[in-house]
Design goal:
2 copies of one chain form a homodimer.
Chain A: E1 2-3, E2 8-12, H1 13-26, H2 31-46, H3 55-66, E3 76-81, E4 84-88, H4 94-112, E5 114-123, H5 129-136, E6 141-145, E7 152-153, E8 166-171, E9 179-184, H6 190-199, E10 208-209, H7 219-224, E11 226-228, H8 232-245, H9 255-262, E12 270-278, H10 280-284, H11 288-303, H12 312-324, E13 326-330, H13 331-342, H14 348-352
Parallel strand pairs in A: 4-5, 7-11
Antiparallel strand pairs in A: 1-2, 2-13, 3-4, 5-12, 6-8, 6-12, 8-9, 10-11
Chain lengths: 366, 366
């Protein structure tokens, strides 16, 4: 552990891992879950997605303390149709269920050309890009989405019904990084409004409405009211699609049902996630390399005119982190986390409020 | 044929069909294509989507006259993987290729749980909702997308690279109408800007940039420059995804390649289309009815707070048209079409300019 800027601390990757493991184990999470969650948190921290990095340990600790996640759930894989995989997370975190089901999803996509994985009955706290990238690592095209809690009003409405419903997509590329995007279908992440509330600064019109359905610039009124989707009725249509295909289609909760199930505990969203994997060879046979090369021209056409590829900031951060073998985190956050690795907190909710780290990164889901 | 408003003419469905058939046959389209295209045009006219109704006969006639579509192409179906169908439209209109390949797509979705259809090497002129609805009619969930011509700049750029790249989705419902959306990932349909140019009215900021990449309210400058995506970088990411999955993934053209292939002829976009079909039974087995019922609660949650379901205006129009057994079209348009049914036009392009019908409906693709 070395000091960087006065309020920042530099940690090696193995130190981050050790921190994750001790906090999570200390809060009763079983060994396999600890490893899967640690991998996700480390990936986010490495990519400088502060909102999904070690900060999430505070959220996980609180969720575990509340009993809002099953700490030792053993995922159960089901094989209901040739191109479908279901994995029942049995109330545990999504990560382990995903890791366990991934090999079968990959196998089915390769055999059938396209396949879908439903993760059911899981607790979400992470972004979707780690899962999309894990699928793309196998040379497949990936699409993932999930509902959350009913915080977002449909276009033309004023009451929370949809979740922040992220959609993520990944495409394999020859270089070190795939083409990946992962965005909430809400205008902004919920944490972004929360940050404005803490800072006492107004939010832009278009992010949310108040309890009476009127546009508001008051973040507190926005959190009491409803968030809005991005892109008006089109973003709203996408959010509805995600409710349907990662909800009833896979036999799992809508965002409204997730919120109802949470019953005011303030836990992470519950429910399902849909991941679709497509093998380019299913369409292209032996011509995959040729057509992937054509896709590169599309990316060149974007960057040549100054448009940034989605996730490029994240990949730049990854390169920096990998080069120095670690990351920098806020000293105050590390101090909070050090306390969490020592003793089980009786009420995680009170700790959550003390977190001083930026909750709102561009890839933030909720 | 009965008169309605002075400038409108009421036509029965069989009269619309006869009109379509005679215009299309008269321009050399083979019988099977005539029937498939007629069904699509009739469906659009019935739903009061003026831009994709009989007005499109003028566009088709021009495209046929230019030789920009193969009038007697025989679609060729390929079965490359258990959950993949490809149909080579061989330069013909997409409709017939889709109709021919649909049964195999449905069969594969039912067997595998999820399946994908690539239409390759086709000419597009219609919206995507007819195809999505045709899949949904089989009790399946459907997703469809296609590139077009490179008119739309990526977020952060200023040059046309993406097409208007529509995305359509359909979900089966117990009543007469499914849940369907079909929107361009550009801020507006291209025809909408064209309409403003004809009317000499400014366009809103956010629709397009001029040739120098500057925001413009001048529709002529916008048509020379580049359109913008809806929803900023998120809409742009979606447009890129559609370029990839309905372009290189299926071995077909990107919007930039389509425009290049058109070589300034002003023809309809060429290339491919991707349609994904999911059988809810693949995930839900015998519990489909129960979970589809839960989806109805989502729709109730939307309408109860005054939010309109996507396509509800179109479905209301369909009910009206079906009740009266026909539609109303502009007299001036009918006169143009009557001329097209009599003699082959030596140059369809000149006729196109005379069309006085509204080109820009909400579902308009280009």
């Amino acid at each position: 552990m070395h000091s960087a800027a006065p309020d920042m601390v530099q940690l090696r990757f193995d130190e981050i891992e050790a921190l994750c493991r001790s906090v999570l184990r200390n809060h009763g999470l079983s060994r396999d879950h600890v490893e899967a969650v640690t991998r996700t948190i480390l990936a986010a921290e490495r990519d400088e997605c502060a909102s999904h990095g070690v900060y999430r340990l505070i959220v996980c600790a609180a969720t575990l303390a509340k009993g809002a996640v099953v700490p030792d759930a053993v995922p159960e894989i089901d094989d209901p149709a040739p191109a479908i995989v279901r994995v029942d997370a049995r109330g545990g975190y999504a990560q382990l269920a995903f890791e366990r089901a991934l090999p079968l999803l990959v196998e089915k996509a390769r055999t059938s050309g396209i396949a879908a994985l439903a993760i059911n009955n899981c607790v979400h706290f992470a972004a979707l890009w780690p899962e999309v990238e894990a699928v793309v690592d196998h040379g497949l095209v990936a699409l993932a989405c999930t509902p959350s809690h009913a915080w977002v009003a449909p276009a033309g409405g004023s009451k929370g019904l949809f979740g922040t419903n992220p959609l993520a997509f990944g495409w394999p590329r020859p270089g070190p990084f795939p083409f990946v995007f992962d965005f909430a279908t809400s205008a902004v992440a919920r944490g972004e409004i929360e940050l404005h509330r803490r800072a006492g600064t107004p939010i832009p019109i278009g992010w949310a409405v108040d309890e009476d359905g009127k546009p508001t610039i008051d973040p507190a009124a926005a959190l009491e009211g409803a968030m809005l989707t991005f892109g008006g009725h089109k973003g709203s249509a996408l959010a509805a699609m995600i409710e349907l295909i990662a909800g009833p289609l896979i036999g799992d909760l809508t965002s409204a049902e997730s919120m109802e199930a949470d019953a005011g505990r303030g836990g992470s969203p519950l429910g399902g996630e849909l991941i679709v994997a497509i093998d380019p060879r299913g369409f292209l046979g032996q011509n995959v390399a040729h057509h992937l090369e054509r896709a590169e021209k599309l990316f060149e056409g974007m960057t040549a005119q100054g448009a940034r590829l989605p996730s490029s900031r994240r990949f730049a951060a990854r390169q920096r982190s990998l080069a120095r073998g670690g990351v920098c985190i806020k000293r105050s956050l590390l101090e909070d986390l050090e306390r969490l690795r020592i003793a089980i907190q009786p009420n995680g909710a009170s700790i959550e409020g003390e977190g001083s780290v930026n909750q709102a990164a561009p890839d933030s889901v909720t």
